[in-house]
Amino acid sequence: MIIYPAVDIKDGRCVRLVQGEFDKVTIYSEDPVEMALKWEGLGAEYLHVVDLDGARTGETQNISITSEIASKVKMPIQLGGGIRSIEIIEKVISKGIQRVILGTSAVKNPDLVKKAIEIYKEKIVIGIDAKDGMVAIDGWENTSDFTAIDFASKMVELGAKTIIYTDIARDGMLTGPNLIAMREMAQSVDAEIIASGGVSSLKDIKDLKETGVSGVIVGKALYTGDLDLKEAIKIGKE
């Protein structure tokens, strides 16, 4: 199981939100590149980067920063936030990003997903953010009519191999992940599931491993010091 440290970028800085609310923001670093290098230095194998400005506006906002991160770190990077066209996908991948996350665009434009997967195959990851089991969109500010599992199944039919599943109610709360939802997703959908939201301790990492997910994104707990990245990685590899 891979541990993905999260670097969330807003206004050029490394931040964390609470439950995806843009007015509940904590700035952890003025330099996202520095944070990426820090996590790599502690043994991270893969980095999860989110352009929060892009997620909200629908247009990539921090491409220069994400490009710099890609040029400075050796580990692969997956990037999400405002990626809603083939042109942007091509641009991002050309900057050295290994995987591109489609979230809102996957809900609103399944044809984009189909085309993107045909061209870029496993480089396309589907981000499913759930609020009470329903898929949220537009930087989590609105909710769609799809249940998370039904939508995940649709994406797998289109060829998706990896899905990032976030429980918004747990995100940034340090209250522990939604193990029931993660297990249900891992067992119901024929894809690699990366769990996100609520991880606050090494016990959470162990519990998530038992659900069958292939990866875990860790954000706030790393920045607050509640979770030791090296130990988390060790558990993931056991």
Secondary structure topology:
Blueprint: E1 2-10, E2 13-18, E3 21-29, H1 32-41, E4 47-51, H2 52-57, H3 63-72, E5 77-80, H4 86-94, E6 99-102, H5 104-108, H6 110-120, E7 124-131, E8 134-137, E9 142-147, H7 148-157, E10 162-167, H8 179-188, E11 192-196, H9 202-211, E12 215-218, H10 220-224, H11 229-237
Parallel strand pairs: 1-4, 1-12, 4-5, 5-6, 6-7, 7-10, 10-11, 11-12
Antiparallel strand pairs: 1-2, 2-3, 7-8, 8-9
Helix pairs in contact: 1-3, 8-9, 9-11
What does the model show?
This protein has 238 residues and is an alpha/beta fold. It has a single domain, classed as TIM Barrel (Alpha-Beta Barrel). It is 40% helix and 29% strand. It is built from eleven helices and twelve strands. The protein has helices spanning 32-41, 52-57, 63-72, 86-94, 104-108, 110-120, 148-157, 179-188, 202-211, 220-224, 229-237; strands at residues 2-10, 13-18, 21-29, 47-51, 77-80, 99-102, 124-131, 134-137, 142-147, 162-167, 192-196, 215-218. An eight-stranded parallel barrel has the order 1-4-5-6-7-10-11-12, surrounded by eight helices. The chain is globular, with a radius of gyration of 16 Å. The N and C termini lie close together (9 Å). The model has no long low-confidence stretch (mean pLDDT 91).
Number of helices: 11
For the sheet with most strands, the description reads: 8 strands, parallel, barrel
What global shape is seen?
Answer: globular
Give the distance, in angstroms, between the N- and C-terminal Cα atoms.
9 Å
CATH class: Alpha Beta
CATH topology: TIM Barrel
